[in-house]
Amino acid sequence: MSLPILPDRPAMRFATADAPLPLYVTEGPLPEALTPAQAAWARAQGFSGALGQVCVLPSAEGGIAAALFGWGSNATRARSRFPLARAAHALPEGVWSITGLAEDQLEEAALGWLLAGYAYDLYAKAPVPKARLVCPAGVDAARLEAIAAGEALTRDLINTPANDMGPAELERAIKDLADCHGAEINSIVGEKLLERGFPLVYTVGQASPRAPRLVEMRWGSEGPELTLVGKGVCFDTGGLNLKPGSSMGLMKKDMGGAATVLGLAHMIMALKLPLRLRVLVPAVENAVSGDAFRPQDIYTSRKGLTVEINNTDAEGRLVLADALAYADEESPDLILCMATLTGAARVALGPDVPPFYTDDEALAAALAGAAKQVADPLWRMPFWEPYEEKIEPGIADIDNAPAGGMAGSITAALFLRRFVTETERFAHFDIYGWQPSAMPGRPKGGVGQGARAILASLQDVLGLGA
Hints:
32% of the residues lie in helices and 20% in strands. The protein is of the alpha/beta class. It folds into two domains: 10-139, Leucine Aminopeptidase, subunit E, domain 1 (3-Layer(aba) Sandwich), CATH 3.40.220; 145-462, Zn peptidases (Aminopeptidase, 3-Layer(aba) Sandwich), CATH 3.40.630.10.
């Protein structure tokens, strides 16, 4: 099945209307604009302004005149992202405008509404909200629509099952995205990987009949160079270290790093940021067959480092190692790596908060500030130098899966850092890529993490100007 890239989703765009219905957002007090009858109706309905509470107000003719949305308290809002996204599903069909929010709250509220319009409907019809929003005054509608479209692309790619999203299909999706924006594509497939110096990418994918590949996309001719590297393991059985069924059930999302950098790439290209973009996706399936790589095998990476395999289920860092080494050869201004890499990150921070790793203090500060600003949480974790010895097996330069199980996300990050030696600014993101249960603006299923924070930080990080 061919995945439609950036399908038309009216519910994820802003509407236009000469006289949109007002949505009054309030912490409790009823707006003065209400008629006495509407205020009495709201009180009779028990409207208190609690977060997410909705009350539709009638007109004198029996139609819909307006609605109230409870904004709750600072304490309740602190426990929820995109709370206004609830209104998109709760309100009746119509075009609405937000009234009552502070200027600095409008962008998050408007974006949350757009994100609530997402539904994955490739295999079955899925309901989308019929309530549409007029873009609030002072908010950049085109920017938010580009962000929403990029997030929708990420969700679509992750949600598509592995039978329809293998390495070839992921390559096809990248080509289609490139065609949308006039970008260039280069793919290295199958045994050509060995000829071109990507032995770890080939090794991880060699057991599958679906040939492994390294897909490269380039866009832009001026400005600083940004390289995005995304883990594209389209399904991960664990290899010979086979995962139990309970751990294998969500492995269609193991290409969530690739999906997220592609969503971010769309945002960057759609907004025509003044930079040179390079995207690298090692796309493989980690399968089981007589050709599968084995525990205690040793391979020489593109970087020249020898790698001992102590767990075939730690395959993501292997394919990323070759891709990062390739990225590093150009010494770009910034390399960002995104991967659904370790369960240890989820144990430490749960599904909502991805850790990121960088040695660059200014980059770390910019990412942390942007994450808070755009409600796209990130948390910095350390490249803890004393743990370096954990990834040094003695028989080879580096170990892909240190024994003991402790600090698994940190040791994975240290492993990846070994392959970036020529580029001064580097960050790695250990994302989950999945929303376990529906939340405002985020239905259950695939989800982007970190892309909006990165986008918001690029102006400062790369000096792109106003």
